[in-house]
Fold this protein.
Amino acid sequence: MNDLTITQPDDWHLHLRDDAALRAVLPHTARQFARAIVMPNLKPPVRTLAEALAYRDRILAARPAGSAFEPLMTLYLTDNTSADEVLTAHRSGLVQAVKYYPAGATTNSDSGVTDIARCDAVFQAMQDCGMPLLLHGEVTGDAIDVFDREAVFIVRHLVPLMKRFPKLKIVLEHITTSQGAEFVASRADTIAATITPQHLLFSRNAIFKGGLNPHYYCLPVLKREEHRVALVKAATGGSGKFFLGTDSAPHAKNRKEACCGAAGCYSAFHALELYAQAFEAAGALDRLEGFASHHGADFYGLPRNRGTVTLKRESWTVPGHLPFPEGGLVPLMSGETLQWRLAAPAG
Ligand code: DOR
Ligand code: ZN
């Protein structure tokens, strides 16, 4: 097969940043995806409907001419988020979900939740109105090994949360472990998960190959090969519980290649091509469309897209550098060869 035409996909987990950074990265996403769930971890974070609508306007204004790309907005959950704010946001029809970050877990998460049980009134409101809760599923704190943070989160926080709110729609974002994949697969249809391209393509060895490589450092961090294999199995298995979420997280090159380098892989430039590479390696290209274009929309209760995109078999080299404020951006797999290339523009 040399051509693959699929329903236009959506990205169910994306960092677009703001201002000049937003203008630099948005065309990459808009070229491939019809919609994206936009993360709220700006500085300061997007906590209210008013902030989400203002951010949405800035995204719409940054779209390339003629683009119909639709940002799906989220609110950043804090200890002080009120149930009323969430319900008002939901009623607007423009805010799709609420994002939980544990305080201190990752980039701009200082305002995150210090104790998940403090948010029960918000979760109750979300359960009642059917709004999904998006979880950065890691515990923080020095007592837990960084590679165990996701597995511990599931046992310590997710299981009790699902007991308290059995009908709450939950997306366990960017799963990285066999425990994450197996947990989601084995539970009711109220819980689903997104999977990034880097967690399908790489184990943690990539971070250390040929010297410390910060462009493979993201959070949750890459895990052992056996976990990568479990994630590929989940993504390519045909289950509607697993769908595409790039977690593309741009940071300027000098912020990555630095002492205390920032977490995040930049994949928006070539996201679909990266996923095609992973699915082909698993002999499952026929499952890419469900994962990329159907399962997420179905879970969120949104219509599937009507347009299509076409990938062509063509080997090409990922550029070493892309324009971005503060000296440019290094995309995931820069300098490496991919076997599929997006041909037709979204339409
Ligand atoms: O690697 C990451 N980068 N993980 C996150 O959770 C946040 C993201 C970012 O915003 O840079
Ligand atoms: Zn993210």
